[in-house]
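Incident log, structure service

09:12 report received: a user says their structure output differs between two submissions of the same chain.
09:20 pulled the input from the user's history:
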Amino acid sequence: MHRRSSPAPLLAAALFVTTFAQAQDLLVRARTIVIAPDSVLTDGAFLVRQGKVAYVGNDIPAEARANATVVDYGDATIVPGFVLPPTTLGRERDLAEGALAFTPDLKAAEAFDPWQEELGKLPAQGVTAVLLSPSLRNVAGGIGALVKPGKDGGTLVAADLHLQLSLNQSARNPERQPTSLMGAVDLLRTTFTIARTGTAAGPDAAVLRQALQGARKVVIGADTYTELMAALDLAKEFAFEPVLLGARDADKALARITAQKAALVLEPLRPDQRLTQLQLPTRLAEAGIPFCCLGTAEQLRRSAVLAVRFGLDRKTALAMLTRSPAAMLDQAAVIGSLRQGCAGDFVVFTGDPLDLSSALVATWIDGVRVHGTAPTAKPSPTPTTAANAGAR
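09:34 re-ran on a clean worker, output below:
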């Protein structure tokens, strides 16, 4: 009797081929590759392995070059994927507690929707990572997360990042306590003091204690001069370096901001703003203050372009879109550049991304193209040819 062969060997072979294809290295080439704002390759390459940057330029081994799939964008410019600073992605209701003003242990990750429409639109604007944050409507809003859009839905990368606080007007609700800035400051001062003593228990106290110990970044929504001073006073009293969100009147408080090593996430820049606001990025850069801009995905690039128009150097402007927001929340080893070990998140433009005439060609996340076009994949050159090619 003829015995039918088991499908197991065929299935195993198919799985092997699929796994090999998924694991195959990607060698990315272009005329200009911005590894980070202060590191640019001309006619260079980098290699992505299992979603992360494994080698850059001349460090790429000849054998890895020989076995990789080559994606050559020719005369294009490649930069790290844009990072969207703390945002609710339009989900204010889901990321705020209506009845309570103090919810430091609320996690934005618990409201993350990988199929959210706003998330899916981000790659078309060059955004490859989002610092998802609780709403500014709560004095202590909760814990932020790092998420990414993707070809098959979004991904939660890190669920336990910064503590989101707020002293701005939206956190002061006439229908609940606190109703004033003084009340909001008193609430935070009291709870931080209790957490510092170590006598309080529970998740709220644990989150605050982590912030006081430097284990968790503190982001504070503050717009006016009075709000900024209150936020800086709290930071000084409890010895943490804040990230100030909004910071509309930051130009009036530069000395304090510099002295306390605060970082700023500014409102989006617009052509109709006062000149002092448009020149603020240049002043911040001169003072050595880390900064980037809030806004929608569409507004990010416009803010950087306007900052350049009003005096900011181009390297710092590109950092506004990439490295700066990542570094502010201790994620620079993960996103914001194309250095070894970082995610293979990159954006391809026809020219300088700080020139609005340059068109977005493609967006790649974790080594996968999620938007735009790719040149025809080419087999990598033979080892001999690769060895002779140098950084190319």
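09:41 both user submissions now match this output. Likely a transient worker issue. Closing.
09:42 reviewer note: The chain has two domains: 14-81+341-389, 83-328. The chain has a mean pLDDT of 90.
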